Amino acid sequence: MFVTRFAPSPTGYLHRGHAFSALTAHGAARAVDGRFLLRIEDIDATRCRPAFEAAIHEDLAWLGLSWETPVRRQSEHLDDYHGALAALEARGLLYRCFRTRREVADEIARAPHGAMEVFRGRPLPPGEEARRLAANEPFAWRLSLDAAERALGGFQDLTFVEEGAGEPRVVQARPELGGDVVLARKDVGVAYHLAVVFDDALQGITHVIRGADLAEATHVQRLLQALLGLPTPTYRHHRLLTGPDGRRFAKRDRAQTLRELRAAGMTPADLRREMGFD
Ligand code: GLU
Fold first, then answer.
1. Separation of 81 CA from ligand 1 center, angstroms?
2. Which residue of 53, 225, 250, 265 sits 20 to 30 Å from the alpha carbon of 86, by its own alpha carbon?
């Protein structure tokens, strides 16, 4: 059974780009009598707002979409993600990183030309780590690519099927392109990559249909699936919708939110037609 999802984060109002993504996923499910789920990715309490979440339901319903209930809200399942994080930690796949964003950027910049384009680090010596922990210094948990590579005996078996552009093709995942990603922060207990991989597996997602802006994320997500023993869905990264200026729609384009379009008198039929649906 084909199962796909639309998984917005309620950090702003949905815009044309979201509508395109949701209609693409919904249409793909409908075409094969599959299932379409809505998932609210609200783990980042510093950025998510209840009003945006309510608006997601309202705007998608206005577009004419329907989805299964209950809707999974990630903020209600933090224990699940912490469990997965703890399992990785217990296997020595994570390390604490006390660096600020700035320090990470400086470290990359200081490395000999091209030697470090993304961050890769290692645990601090135990004494130093204990001292910083005792001083209550904030830290993030990072996934150690070195440890992951040792655990899996290399990344050569990490592949996924990409159907987003024409014929399906097998892609070799290259998690090293993203460096040692942060899987948990002090202020946000667990990061997007871990929660999304966990939920896609839990909800039996067979096809992840999302924008090409997330294509890169698939590489580390494929690695997490392998480390956590989770299945790998098929991916369809669709093209990003661009505005008249050639730039892709983003939350910053306030006038392009679905609510604004609605207020300006646009109908769902107009929007679907404009985007090439039905
Ligand atoms: N929550 C993510 C976002 O709003 C999308 C996650 C996904 O589709 O994998 O960008």
1. 16
2. 53
Structural domains of the chain, count: 2
CA of 20 to the centre of ligand 1 (A): 14
Looking only at Cα atoms, what is the longest distance across the chain?
A: 64
Q: What is the pLDDT of residues 27-79, one digit of tens each?
A: 999 999 999 999 999 999 889 999 999 999 999 999 999 999 999 999 999 99
pLDDT digits (tens, 9 = 90+) for 70-93: 999 999 999 999 999 999 999 999
Residue with more model confidence, 35 or 276: 35
What is the mean predicted confidence (pLDDT) over 213-226?
96
Please give the order of strands across the beta sheet that includes 234-238.
72-73, 35-40, 3-6, 207-211, 234-238, 159-162, 169-172
Contact 97, 62 (CB under 8 A): no
In CATH, what number is assigned to the domain containing residue 262?
A: 3.40.50.620
CATH code for position 184: 3.90.800.10
What is the structure's pLDDT at 255? 58
Q: Whose CA is nearest to atom 6 of ligand 1?
A: 7
In the structure, which protein residues have their CB atom closer than 6 angstroms to any atom of ligand 1? 7-9, 41, 196, 210, 214
Q: Which helix (H) or strand (E) holds 133?
A: helix 126-134
Residue 114: its pLDDT value, please? 66
Residues of the domain holding 92: 78-202
CA of 7 to the centre of ligand 1 (A): 5
Indicate the pTM of the whole model: 0.93
Q: Residue 195 Cα, ligand 1 centroid: separation in angstroms?
A: 10
The per-residue pLDDT for 253 is 61
Q: Which of 102, 17, 92, 14 is nearest to 53 (CA)?
A: 14
- Tell which one of 196, 203, 207, 224 to mutate to probe ligand 1, the residue whose CB is within 8 A of the most ligand atoms: 196
Q: Is residue 211 assigned to a domain?
A: no
Assess whether 104 and 126 both reside in one domain.
yes
Question: Which of 142, 177, 202 is a domain's end point?
Answer: 202
Instruction: Say which DSSP state 248 is in.
Output: B
Q: Which atom of ligand 1 is nearest to the CA of 11?
A: 4
Q: Output the CA 42–ligand 1 centroid distance in Å.
A: 10
